[in-house]
Specification:
The protein is mainly α. About 50% of the residues lie in helices and about 0% in strands. The strands form two sheets. The chain has a five-stranded mixed beta sheet with strand order 4-3-5-7-6, with helices on both faces. It has a two-stranded antiparallel ribbon with strand order 1-2. Strand 1 (about 590) and strand 2 form a beta hairpin.
Length: about 750
């Protein structure tokens, strides 16, 4: 700490071609958090893993990012990250870890990039602290340990940032073009989310470059045009290709990439309006682990199914659902309720906000004395860049109608940068007795420790009282001692400063390790003692012998049951149907949740129990620790019903598709297992209007498909097709294909019916 004030000497030293020995353990920590035990995740996010399996089979599937080997429908994201995953699988073989590896390396790379970006201007100690803060931000390793896109997206945006900073230092226009082109590449990873950093890029370039306004406008206009061209390049090619020569664009309603970019993956994320065909109200875009937008019961269902739904509605009085913390104040997917303090609410704060109070005090210190008209120092200019990244993204997540917890990784770079730069700046002000500014350091330590106590308090049953009390007590003591010793200059004070930073990073470090300790969830990654559930909220008190989360859902024909407590779960606030959360294939009666049709578990919550009067049971946090066996955490029923697979394989007479089903969750495990085409008729959620009755008839007559597995899920946009299938098919007795084992043989998601259709 005593060397922090010698920034000039530090920068000269850091610019020499030698390894920073302090950086080595930071990188090793990041490598451990991002890589350790990723080989235990066999399926990862099965939806995306199935796409990689399909993309390995042909260039056609590779280019379009086809979900299935038959090229029927694409995944719901652009292809760049999945191109990288496919190349990784090609090199190392197709495994869960090989599709996760690129994201894990990107997480480590982001730590290194942040070190480089912060060190050059703020000093080597600032770079070290920023890199460590990035490595220990819980949501960073939680996401990087999966095959979701966001870790690679952040890495790409940090590469673009490095290019922009170089453009300003060298005054070379080529680097400006490269920086904005890289944002265009990021757009082809996760569409409009990549554009969240644009305010920072524009503001920084305008403020930091010493050229005329005419040149600034011309350069930024040209760079923006290039960015847009790169952004839409793949979309233009796809949308210009005849629909019969490419897969359907998954999760779009018009078979268009641009509609997907600006609708489902764009404005709808802000408004929360993810309604789809067959639905007249707003719905969440991905229902917990399985659907992008679950559908209400269709009036065109068969009479028998309607009768069954009615009977379920009558018995639903004992099937109320309650949020993990006993209420619904945490909002959908534990993303809290919109408002200015949303990032401090449960479910979000423990993913990203551990250092936010310290960051706020750092911002005050870094901008203290800045005049609007300048001139600005290099530190002030780059601080403005990170602030222009932090604020718009924080505002978006504070008001957005729909997002997942792991999207918060977008906030990690500016928070870590301010934590590193602020630690050095506030320490310097403290040591120099710089008036009111000297109080920023102890104040930042005190308030940050207080917030961390608040964040941990709901988890007292999981982590105990000791760490909570320890952080609170040490934070108060260190802040008070630093305040008292403000006038003294000796080594003791330096050690106190180091101790304070260790205390503030201790619990984020533990939280960052929870996906390793307790197991992670590859579909909805989140950190915390309940990280394997994907809920990202305080743990429930239920007990369950199965792994928590939706992975424990009973397979078709399962006779197993689990014991649990009487926890009930209520629909999260902000969901459709007046705050009711609709499960796939479910229905409602007076705000009470109905189980999916065809379920034999009498309203059982996935991973829960069918006992206790049919009440929905929450999975146990105590059951989430990893066993020595491989995890299959790719979503509901991410395993294969071997008996069903054997039946379909034996009775296949040359059909292109092994079978057809309503949604991707049912299809993905079979694609991963066999590499054979399985048709997800309605795309990811089962709601895409891909298939018509006439098209299906044509496919059956051509001998492309004859078996259909229907589970009562994902009917939006295809209810006519499902009705026609039921009316024109032969039902296959369940004894021929349905497993009676409750252990390892699982079929498509939920209990359903297998049909066969043969047309002449």
């Amino acid at each position: 700490m005593k060397h922090m004030n010698s920034e000039v000497k530090e920068e000269r030293t850091s610019n020499k071609k030698r390894i920073d020995l302090f950086l080595v353990p930071i990188v090793l920590i990041a490598a451990f958090l991002n890589l350790f035990k990723i080989w235990t995740d066999e399926y990862a996010n099965a939806y995306y893993t199935a796409a990689v399996k399909s993309m390995l089979q042909s260039f056609h599937n590779f280019f379009y990012a086809s979900f299935d080997p038959g090229g029927y429908v694409t995944i719901d994201k652009p292809p760049v990250v999945f191109w990288i995953q496919t190349i990784s699988a090609k090199i190392f073989g197709f495994h869960g870890w090989s599709v996760i590896l690129p994201q894990a390396l990107a997480g480590i790379g982001s730590v290194l990039l942040l070190y480089v970006l912060v060190k050059r201007t703020f000093g080597v100690w600032a770079g070290r602290f920023a890199a460590l803060a990035m490595a220990l931000t819980p949501i960073v390793p939680a996401v990087s340990r999966t095959n979701n896109i966001d870790s690679m997206l952040v890495f790409t945006l940090l590469v673009a940032t490095w290019m922009l900073f170089r453009a300003v230092r060298t005054a070379k226009f080529g680097w400006v073009l490269a920086a904005f082109a890289m944002i265009g590449v990021a757009f082809n990873m996760k569409m409009l989310q990549a554009y969240m950093v644009l305010p920072a890029f524009y503001v920084f370039y305008v403020v930091a470059t010493k050229i005329t306004w005419k040149k600034k406008i011309a350069f930024l206009t040209t760079a923006t045009a290039l960015m847009l061209a790169v952004s839409v390049s793949w979309a233009v090619v796809v949308d210009s290709t005849s629909a019969d020569k490419r897969p359907y664009m998954g999760s779009s309603q018009t078979n268009s990439v641009l509609e997907l970019a600006f609708g489902y993956n764009g404005i709808n994320r802000l408004t929360g309006n993810t309604s789809v065909t067959g639905s007249s109200h707003k719905q969440p875009a991905q229902a917990q682990q399985q659907t992008a937008s679950s559908e209400t019961k269709q009036t065109s269902n068969s009479n028998a199914e309607s009768s069954q739904s009615s009977n379920q509605s009558k018995s639903s009085s004992s099937q109320k659902m309650q949020a993990p913390d006993g209420g619904n104040q945490n909002g959908m997917f534990n993303t809290g309720n919109p408002g200015p303090f949303r990032l401090f609410q449960k479910g979000l704060s423990d993913q990203i906000s551990w250092l936010l109070p310290f960051v706020i005090f750092s911002i005050v210190g870094l901008f203290a004395g800045v005049k609007f008209k300048g001139p600005y120092t290099a530190k002030q200019k780059e601080s403005l860049f990170w602030l222009a990244w932090l604020l718009p993204v924080a505002v978006f997540f504070s008001i957005a109608g729909f997002f997942h917890q792991y999207y918060l990784i977008m906030l990690a770079p500016p928070i870590a940068a301010f934590a590193g730069a602020g630690a050095v700046a506030l320490w310097s002000m403290y040591k120099q007795h710089n008036g009111w500014k000297s109080w920023l350091l102890p104040s930042g330590i005190l308030t940050t420790a207080a917030l961390q106590v608040y964040i941990m308090s709901p988890y007292v049953s999981s982590i105990g009282v000791a760490p909570i009390a320890g952080v609170g007590a040490l934070g108060v003591i260190l802040a008070l001692v630093l305040a008292i010793r403000k006038e003294r200059k000796n080594s003791v004070t330096n050690y106190l400063g180091v101790a304070a930073m260790v205390v503030l990073l201790a619990m984020p470090a533990y939280w960052a390790m929870t996906p390793i300790i307790y197991g992670g969830n590859s579909m909805l990654p989140a950190a915390g003692p309940d990280s394997s559930s994907g809920m990202g909220g305080p743990p429930s008190t239920a007990t369950n012998s199965k792994q928590s989360g939706f992975n424990g859902m009973q397979p078709p024909g399962s006779s197993g049951s689990n014991s649990s407590s009487n926890n009930q779960m209520q629909p999260p606030s902000g969901s459709s149907n007046g705050g009711q959360m609709q499960m796939p294939g479910g229905s409602y009666n007076n705000g009470q949740m109905q189980p999916p049709s065809g379920s034999s578990n009498s309203g059982q919550m996935p991973g829960g129990s069918s006992e206790n009067n049919g009440k929905m049971q929450m999975p146990s946090s105590s059951s989430s620790k990893l066993s020595s066996s491989k995890r299959k955490s790719g979503g509901m029923n991410a395993e294969v019903n071997t008996k069903l697979l054997n039946y379909l394989t034996k009775n296949n007479t040359g059909e292109k598709y092994l079978f057809a089903t309503t949604d991707s969750t049912s299809a993905a495990p079979y694609i991963i297992k066999t590499g054979k085409p399985v048709m997800a008729m309605g795309g990811f959620s089962g709601s895409d209007p891909i298939l018509t009755v006439s098209k299906l008839k044509s496919m059956i007559k051509k001998g492309e498909v004859k078996y259909f597995y229907l589970s009562g899920m994902g009917k939006g946009g295809q209810s006519d097709v499902i009705t026609w299938i039921k009316e024109n098919s032969k039902e296959i007795p369940s004894s021929k294909w349905q497993s009676t084992s409750s252990s390892s043989q699982q079929g498509p998601s939920g209990n359903g019916t297998l049909y066969e259709i043969t047309l002449k």
